[in-house]
Amino acid sequence: MTTRPQLSMASPSSPAAALKPVLIHLLRGASDLASVAATHAKLVKAGFASPLASSNHLLAAYCRCGAMCCARDLFDGMRDRDVVSWTTLMSGYAAAARPRDAMSLLRAMGSSGVRPNAVTFSTAACACARLADAGLGRQVHAQAEVAGCARDAVVATSLLDMYAKAGGVEDARAVFDAMAAPARNAVSWGAMLAAYAQNTLGDEAIRLFAELRTHGGGVAPNHFMLATVVSACAGMARLGIGRCVHGAVLRLGYGNNDVISVALVDMYSKCGCYEYSRKVFDRIEQPSVVTYTSIIVAAAKYGRWRCVLTLFNEMVDQGVRPNDVTLLGVMHACSHSGLVDTGLQLLRSMQSKYGVAPCPSHYTSAVDMLGRAGRLEEAFELAKEAQVEGNDALLLWNSLLSACRTHKRLDLATMAGQRVFNNQQDVAGGLVMMSNAYVSAGQIDNAAAVRSSMRLRGIRKDPGCSWIEVKDTPYVFYAGAISCAGAWADEVLMLLDELESKMRERGYRGRLGSARVSDAHEDEEEEGKGVMVGVHSEILALAFGLLVVPKGMTIRVMKNLRMCSDCHEVFKLISGIIEREFVVRDLNRFHHFKMGSCSCNDYW
DNA sequence: ATAGGGTTAG
């Protein structure tokens, strides 16, 4: 930021009183520490440093620069402090990712006798949101209620957001419901939509969006809401509704909004329609880092590495500097296409070439690609070199464990498993990996032991499920449970029998449904309830899709976990037997099955 | 003067 010479050159002959508004104006426009400090000096010289209003402006200016030490020194030296002084400093701490300091300031404020106002409560709620601490947030809520501020639109919206970010969607909704309808403005509707979307309640987000249009009391959808709803559709892979929302985006005149375009690119790619993603991207006039990244990530999901590298080079040529997410997307593309050395090179050169330091996720991606390629010793060395901690470490070592499983390297799996256990974090994923590694090595007893220790310790993993959208309605399938097919259940079974025998003729040796131990990668709670014990959810969803999706239409199956190698083989075989195309969305990529093969070329 | 919501990655 530059200072404004025409303002700093206030006439020396002007009376001091005239200087004050000029200096205050300077402060309000300043966002760099040097000019704030310079103006501070001038204020002191002119004798205005101590009056409350000037100090508050200075305080706000220091907070805007993120110079929290300067802000604190100033605050501590102030003779008088009013609610604005306290609130300004609190808000500075919250914005500087120091929510704990903001909250201790709230307590100190209480004992100093200055009464908080609506802005103070809103700021405190924001700090609690950053801490994701609903307990502390509830105390703020209670204080605001007592002070009569809780119905204030801004306070209520901040509290709503706080509950949502602390995982209490019901509490967030209660705050929303308690707001009088006229108090609900575009921001509160947007915050409630985001609350659902961020807590993976996409259906609720879509329902609320519909409610806005019928009972919104004149509040029009804005770009915040549209981006949120599109992202909710992406999360649930709901192509039908996603296209409707895209229509609304265009009708409302937001077709040129970058943030919405990014959400649309992501939505179409997660719905299995890369071509639509491409169309949305091609309409963007001046793609930014984020828009380039969204299409790179989309192409990476489809294993289109040539496309990814072309886009990446084009972006760099255009002078758009890649960020950490872009580079991760390119690395994923390398990983999913077997371009191990290109990917590793990128990891080693990202700092010098693009000024981006490798994050834990970049190391995880690199470990993943080495692991897939069977270069497990290198993967292990790199994992150690990365020196990551906490949840990041879990992801990293899990990735290695998964590779150990695929390549039946129990020796390394045990060492990697140890690293997972050493992390005091959520270990469910690691334990499942361990159990699967034992299964692959034929050590069924050990696998069972890990599983039962999980049950004893009350550790659960999200059950694996697959779903398919038919005429805008999602049908969700769990392993072994055919009841989801409703009236079609019997026909699903018959079709699976028929397919199994046809696959046999082509050399398939497995079984689609039986109590196989290798099914351990999916939840077995449904065991016994279904007619076909052990049949994987994606196979059920596919069979259902083959029956109900009209011929000629691509069948799109979504899955919340990664597809297992058995199912991958089965899907390839089925696509060769039946002349239909189907797309499976994995946890992290797409598989397009056609005439007996898959777009991933078995790299996954 | 001080305050509230959104996109890409996992």
TrEMBL record:
UniProtKB keywords: Repeat, Transit peptide
Descriptive protein name: DYW domain-containing protein
MF annotations from Gene Ontology: RNA binding; zinc ion binding
Organism per entry: Miscanthus lutarioriparius
InterPro entries, alphabetized: DYW_dom, E_motif, PPR_At4g14850-like_plant, PPR_rpt, TPR-like_helical_dom_sf
NCBIfam families from the UniProt entry: PPR
Keyword Transit peptide: yes
Pfam families: DYW_deaminase, E_motif, PPR, PPR_2
Residue span(s) of domain DYW: 521-604
PROSITE patterns: PPR
One biological process term in Gene Ontology: RNA modification
